[in-house]
Amino acid sequence: MEDATRPPRFWSLDALRGGCALVVFLSHWHLWSNFPPRGEFERGLRFTLDEIYHAISGITWPTGGHHPAVLGFFVLSGFCIHFPFEWKLRHAPATPPVWRDYFRGRFWRIMPVYWAACGLGLIFVAAQHFWPVADPTLQLHARSTLAHVLIRFTGLAGVYPDEIIAGNYLLNTVAVEMVMYAAYPLIHRFAVRGAWLGLGLGFLFMQGTAVLLLIWVTPYWVFNSVFMLGIFWYAGALAAHLFVSRGWRATGAQFGAAWAFFLLTKLELVPPFYGLNLIKQAAWGLVCMLGITWALRVEERRPAPGTGPVIGGLRFAGRISYALYAVHTPVIMLTSWALWLGFGWRNYLVQLAATLVASLAVTLLVHHGIERRFYRPRGT
Question: How far apart are the first and last CA of the chain?
Fold first, then answer.
């Protein structure tokens, strides 16, 4: 018998989350391993990784837009946050949301790892400040001010109109997630009234507002603000609504057609115009939205995930995805800094191996030592 107070956990979404985390990490691991390759083997390896990166970018990246996996994260987040509430609306409508528990759960889910990642970023900033190296990538990621550090640690980067790097610029998107979590009770209020069209128009209005904001504030903040990213979070929440209330599951044909349409937007069949990148991003958001419910359709046909290495690995990556996303930037930077300054090893293979091992080691340390101490989701 179904327990209306405990909505199911989907292994397919864990796998999707893991896939998104790995794509973000591996793309950064490749791009930021910038020591010059030497010898035929290293140059061949670099060429191979470049080709893989360009191939994946070609079929997934909204040209001029956000990282495709980051958009996937936002759609997934909207789905996963709204799904339990939508489930209870259908199975236990007399049970009102307990917002105190919601905010407590979100706080312990996000903030301990977030602060640990902030600290790692600050350690890298201090290292580069006191013992600088002449590497453009390291110099860029070490940019920071005292005001930026304070904004970052207080979690206000999602509403502070400036670009914050501070050793870990990926945390800007986490800060935008915090804004969405804080605003969710208001979103829920409209959702229970069925005002999905109004919500969608509201988020589209926010994107229009973002275009106007470009006149006054840095585009790098607008690019990673709730004004641009909120619509993808909404797409995930809408997918959860359609999935629960109307039994909607995308078919493989629908998912494939959406992906084909996205690829068509990248072929430049029409002359470039202002806002074209928004259309490309919207098309990719549709791919992510349909991809989630298509994965759930697949799971319904195969409720048990099996023990295969691919699905098992993706599910494991899904469990550590937040820690991996949060810490890998400063770990890669610190490791490269140490190789450059501390050891003088500017070897491409050593950099690849060291940044990979260090990132995974710190991710597991943060996941088991911090994340699981404060937050243990059901089913783990």
Answer: 21
Distances (CA, A) of 76 to 17, 82, 134: 7, 10, 39
Q: What is the pLDDT of residue 378?
A: 53
> Nearest to residue 280, comparing CAs of 293, 264, 256?
264
Show Cβ contacts of residue 353 under 8 Å, excluding neighbours closer than 6 positions: none
Taking the C-alpha atoms of residue 142 and residue 332, their distance in angstroms, rounded to an integer, is 12
> Taking a C-beta distance cutoff of 8 angstroms, is the pair 333, 138 a contact?
yes
What is the DSSP-derived secondary structure letter of residue 57? H
Q: What is the pLDDT of residue 218?
A: 83
Tokens coding 298? 């697949």
**Residues 218, 223, 224: CA angle, nearest 5 degrees:** 105
Are 355 and 33 in contact by the 8 Å Cβ rule? The answer is yes
Measured from the Cβ of residue 172, the count of other Cβ atoms closer than 10 Å reads 22
Does pTM top 0.85 for this prediction?
yes
Inter-CA distances, 274 with 171, 232, 271, 277, Å: 28, 20, 10, 8
Tell me: the pLDDT tens digits for 188-213?
A: 999 999 999 999 999 999 988 888 88
Q: Which residues of the chain have pLDDT under 50?
A: 1-2, 4, 379-380
Instruction: Map out the domains of the chain as residue ranges.
Output: 11-52+66-374
Report DSSP state, residue 81: H
CA distances from 376 to 109, 210, 371, 379 (A): 8, 36, 8, 9
